[in-house]
Amino acid sequence: xxxRIRVAAGEDGARELASLRRWxxxxxxxxxTVDVERRPVGAGEMGALADTLTVAVGAGGVVTVLxxxxxxWLRQRRSDVRVDITASDGRRVxxxxxxxxxxxxxxxxxxxxxxxxxDGDGAPRGAD
Length: 128
Fold this sequence. Notes:
Blueprint: E1 2-8, H1 13-26, E2 34-38, E3 50-56, H2 62-75, E4 82-86, E5 92-96, H3 103-116
Antiparallel strand pairs: 1-3, 1-4, 2-3, 4-5
Helix pairs in contact: 2-3
């Protein structure tokens, strides 16, 4: 399963996304699972902008590691930041830096539903 993470922070969005990427890649349980997803270049733009991270969370404890790591990162923010997390099944959760007390539980709840919808080999239930 791949989870998409977007960061909304006004003009600081690109900087905050880069910060989150470094934070997640520093987490032992997430090393090698984080990628940058670039959006297409729009008319009048110089190049593609990174606005989304993807994280592979197929293994057992990775969901818990990701939830805890995102919560820790949010606690470190000094400005308003919103993180939008979307599981591959379309379930979403948004967490802001102002309300992080329950962030790990919210994030893990969304991601756990995806994990439960897959069988032991990581394939969606009912997949051929």
